[in-house]
What does this fold into?
Amino acid sequence: MRVLCTTQPLYGHFHAIMPYALELRAQGHEVAFATARGFAPVIERLGFRVFACGVDYDAATDILSKLPGCQSLLSQGFPPVFSQLWGFILGLGPQMAADLLENVGAWQPDLVLRDPLEFGSFVAAESWGIPHVSVVWAIYINPGVWIPPWLAELCAGFGLPSQPIPDRYDRWLVLKSLPPDWSIM
It folds into this structure.
């Protein structure tokens, strides 16, 4: 089986998926990653193939606050968590989805194992008609409560049905090893 792991170019996000990727590879599966070009060497050192996809940014800077539209949300009084979610979905998601669809589709993954804040792979997996699994590493973000309008907009931009997002987003599997109290969102 071919498994595509997708992650934001951030160590905490990557470290949450890495144990699954290592075990899948140990079990004989072909595992590759998709992330920003600048983060690829971190993953390649572990012997994984990496597809350079998405916005290439340095995690030392707050990329989300620099995305067009983010400041508008903050100026409207939205809490920072909303502007961050918007940034991950509509700020970073479109480029990741476009790159995945253009550069990874020929590799033909059977499964996408995704960082829950990497939304472009949700679009790509839905487009390819393959299962996608979220690896939750922090508070679970319930797609039925927080993200439907923005994720619907992202999906519509790639010709996918924009509704019902909550029924499709985590329909395959969510891997989480969090205390029960962390599932409040």
